[in-house]
Amino acid sequence: MKNLEQELAQIEERLLVLEEERTVLLARKQAIQNQLNSKKPKESQFSLDEKVSLFCSLFKGRTDVFSLRWENKQGRSGYSVACMNEWRQGICHKPRIKCSDCSHRVLRSIDNTVIYDHLAGKHTVGLYPLLHGDECWLLAVDFDKTDWQKAATAFNDTCKFYGIDCAVERSRSGNGAHIWIFFSDMVPARDARRLGFTLLDKAMERHAGLSFESYDRLFPNQDIMPEGGFGNLIALPLQNLPRQNGNSVFIDGQFNPYPDQWRFLASLQKMQLKKLHTILERLEENKKPELDLKPWEKSLPIKRDKIGGCPTVVDIVLANKLYLPIEHFPHAYSGELDQSFWKYLITSTT
Which residues, 6+ apart, have CB-to-CB distance to 136 below 8 Å? Predict the structure, then answer.
């Protein structure tokens, strides 16, 4: 009997290995198909200059400063502010002197050559989306947890429901997504972030199980420019090296890269400031002003009408944690429950 149980366990382990191998092979297959598609003549309708111009018209942030990605021999990576004097003998004293403390730092500006080199794979550019005046040209939402595909789908569906054009980018690691929304005008960062938070709220109402950590991953990540800082950066998409593996590209609802990335980007509609305000009014309808709320009620989801289909009795287990079975709850209720609990934790610890 034990031998059979051991054999069964071995079979299950082997099946898991095969499933992982199948996933890797399918991803590689898709990457090869993407490379073949990218060589088709249909992309030739865009010249190099047109591609760079289109890219710069969408992915706009601060132009007076940007960062470049680095990676050392130990595999550590990060971003450093691009400097005209970097590694110049007798002037640059990294790593003994930090860039932020260096009197010789001369910030590099973003131009078409910087963007072209990013797209060509010579370097990876980190964009600072928060502008002087606390405004921005875009909003990006980062999903990077185990359920990123479900979360990104829920957010994308919610954007479509409210008539918002957005672009879903698979991250450079392949294990997450950025969803980009572009504005035709500079808009207050506070309003852009309100849009992101409120859309996430609505996505949670429509789809339970959303990765709530995404609330901390909006770009811009601040309403107001921090004193002496640049705000948080976000890596620009379509860098050539991860593209070879099917990453850092824009994907459709089935998570397949668009065959013509540039045609897709050219099809996107930017949101006007007037539309942003209209959508915010619609999304935040019936929401009480924060001044009227008690401290623990701030940022909690909007009160809804009674939700049908809830169980009449729920068994709650109190052990090392509080265990609440939600598999039999309606999605709308479990989504709101998760929102309330997660936001309570954030509010009570800040």
Answer: 61, 129, 130, 183, 186, 187, 189, 192, 220
